[in-house]
Amino acid sequence: MQEPLIYIDGEFYAKSSAKISVFDHGFLYGDGVFEGIRVYGGVVFKLREHVERLYRSAKAIRLEIPMTVDEMVDAVIKTVRVNGFRDAYIRLVVTRGVGDLGLDPRKCGKPSVIVIVEQLEPILGAQSRETGVKLIISSTRRDPVYATSHEVKSLNYLNSILAKLEAIAAGADDAVMLDSRGFVSEATGANIFVVRSGVLVTPPVTAGILPGITRAFVMELARRLGIPVEERDITPTELLTSDEVFLTGTGAEIVPVAMISGVKIGKIVPGPITSKIIGEFDRIKSDPSNGVKAL
Ligand SMILES: Cc1ncc(COP(=O)(O)O)c(C=O)c1O
User: Fold this and answer.
1) SS (H, E, C) 226-270
2) Of 53, 106, 258, 281, which has the fewest Cβ atoms less than 10 A away?
3) Does residue 270 have a cis bond before it (omega within 30 degrees)?
4) Domain 128-284, what fold?
5) CA 137 to CA 80: how far, in whole Å?
């Protein structure tokens, strides 16, 4: 099988020879931003929304991307086309670029733009949507909004990695992270929703979450299905006593939660509202109106 082709700064390289400098500050300091995007049936889901979020993340860390939004959209489409994957995961990365060993970003010449396209199962396992996943509540809190906030999708994921390690050590699939105040924030790489008495509830951006594109789409789907939606703080006790809990993210997709820190969630997995939302998401995710047709 031919190796996937990876876009780096306007050129394509075979996966085994796609390399960047060890002096790139993305590597040395996690100084850069990224996006994860999925392709469903040849349609790049919410491509524009992802690229726009990438530019917002870059702006927040004062990183000037050397391409326009339209050029970035084209680079992603070109990379999907050259690889020919109709169902795939895209990793779009912009690094600060090559500098010296000091922190000073002014020493970095030009940001590097990288697009990787690969075939990828849902990150928490292909079975996860039927069986549900097991979570713990991590002792590592989500970084506060006045620090390396996850509102910015940066290359700096140590905060999440520490929580993931704790989940692995506990034999769980993933971790729920609380914010600096002790309210529910999100999972290590996905947003969280709970269902309480027929109402869908999700933490607000002020809880230090990444404002997920899947999260926004799920809220829109729920409203269309007549399910009331609230964005508000959720306490850990509310989380454990909810009727249904599920995670949303590009990598994870929509995943029901079966257990949190040893407490069984709801009566059946997936619960009725989770099932309805997964069904609707699957029905329309490859509709060209929800993205950009590449193949
Ligand atoms: C920390 C974090 N939260 C939430 C999400 C979900 O965001 P999206 O639905 O845009 O993929 C992600 C990425 O997938 C993430 O890394």
Assistant:
1) CCCEEECCCCHHHHHCCCEEEEEECCCEEEEEEEECCEECCCCCC
2) 106
3) yes
4) D-amino Acid Aminotransferase; Chain A, domain 2 (3.20.10)
5) 37
Listed in order, the ranges of the chain carrying CATH 3.20.10.10 are 128-284
pLDDT of the chain along its 295 residues, tens only?
Answer: 689 999 999 999 999 999 999 999 999 999 999 999 999 999 999 999 999 999 999 999 999 999 999 999 999 999 999 999 999 999 999 999 999 999 999 999 999 999 999 999 999 988 999 999 999 999 999 999 999 999 999 999 999 999 999 999 999 999 999 999 999 999 999 999 999 999 999 999 999 999 999 999 999 999 999 999 999 999 999 999 999 999 999 999 999 999 999 999 999 999 999 999 999 999 999 999 999 999 9
Atom 4, ligand 1: which residue's CA is nearest? 190
Our separate counts of H helices and E strands in the chain read 8, 16
Indicate which residues carry an active-site annotation. 153
CA dihedral 155, 251, 56, 157 (to 10 degrees): -20
Amino acid of residue 74 = D
Ligand 1 pocket, CB under 6 A: 36, 150, 160, 186, 189-191, 210, 212-215, 248-251
Domain with CATH 3.30.470.10 in the chain: 5-118
Please tell me the distance between residue 53's alpha carbon and the centre of ligand 1 in angstroms.
11
Pocket test for ligand 1, best of 40, 191, 248 (most atoms within 8 A of CB): 191
pTM exceeding the 0.70 threshold for the entire prediction: yes
